[in-house]
Task: structure prediction
Amino acid sequence: MTGEERARFAEALRFALDAHGDQKRRGTQIPYVSHLVQVAGSVLEHGGDAEQAIAGLLHDALEDCEGVSEAGLRAEFGPEVARIVRAVSDVVEGDTPSRKSPWLLRKRRFIAHLRVQDARVRLVAGCDKLDNLRSLIADLHAEGVETLARFRGTPPQIRWYYEEVRGALGSELPVRLVRELDALVAELARFVPEADPGAPGPAPRSRRSRTVRGADRGRPSRRAGRGARRAGPRR
Result:
């Protein structure tokens, strides 16, 4: 990164810290900003440039932060960052951070939208899903399938979603990223034997159980000016 790029990255990190505030990852005490930093780092690790890394830091700002707009991101971080953030946002027209469309509607729309995105957008989206899957699989190993109960989708819906996203990302991502995504999606299938976007499914019952037949990761907000109201995770 050049000196100017480092300064922009630092400003984007301050923006993300302000926007997401004290939000936590769903069902945990982990600061939400940890996910944003992981995504940005993964973008750089897999060959992304500064604008993609900045978009990684801000990728949930439109979706989860009151007072953040595409126009505001464009004015502060430039058109390319705003374009990527918009493209990876899991929202339906008219959604707000506190009032979102039903989970399945949003996921179907996101998958269809992802299929037609360019390689720059798909790298950021792939790194986002990589960090989500890493955390999800680690939690499944540590806590068992009960950990899925904290998500909005059922376990079969969650497996379906990640398999469809993996397909939508295609095979033109960096080889290491493709291989790890494939391995994590396969590992998820070990815990959740069915993939079904419409399956209601029972709640997980026992910590001892290794698979379940029947819960996406929650996310959690920027400033409008400097005082945007923070919206909690609603994934």
In short: Residues 119-143 form the longest helix (25 residues).
